[in-house]
Amino acid sequence: MPTLRERVCQANHDLVANGLVLYTWGNASAVDWTENVLLIKPSGVDYAQLTPDTIVAVRLADGQPVDPKGLRPSSDTPTHLALYRAWPKIGGIVHTHSEYATACAQACSDIPPHGTTHADYFATEVPCCRQLTAEEVAGAYEANTGAVILETWRQRNLDPIATPGALVAQHAPFAWGASVEKAVYHATVMERLARMHTHQRILNPQAPQIPAYLLDKHYQRKHGAGAYYGQKAH
Asked: Which fold has domain 4-223?
């Protein structure tokens, strides 16, 4: 069994393999609730140079690296911390600047649920958060990025498990899941949903959203209490 450190390293490499990042434009993390730390990509390190030993451990309590003499954690670490602290059911977080999802974020636009592909993975729209204020940017910018995601989920009464990703206005997407592998999966799905949404707007700007009964059917058949998609676990 790979260690959590090895899984976080692999998840970061998967972002490159899935076409979600260029250069150092992103990061993946996982939380270890037993040790009360998160493991995250080091800041500015090229993915080709990333190994399990370079993954940085950060204490959940105070956000400080476990090894202060080691590599610095991602500059987005305070955003990850804010989400882990608020949502203990999630186990992994991904941040990218993938092309289409970032375009939606820059347009300050939700990704609406228009079809069953969306409904298979997101029970609602993919929300775009409000713009951060000048004061929020000048202050604890990355922590405030996490705060504005949490604010959006409270205001829209969203379940972070059923809606596992956000667009931060004029910035880029974040995605999460029960594990770091699921976070990568949801980030990949978000990018494809954003791409389909963009093409659909060209084909028919007035296309209606998927009706609630069909959205709920597709989401529940995969994720609900009576889910029947796929094979039974043995």
From this structure: L-fuculose-1-phosphate Aldolase (3.40.225)
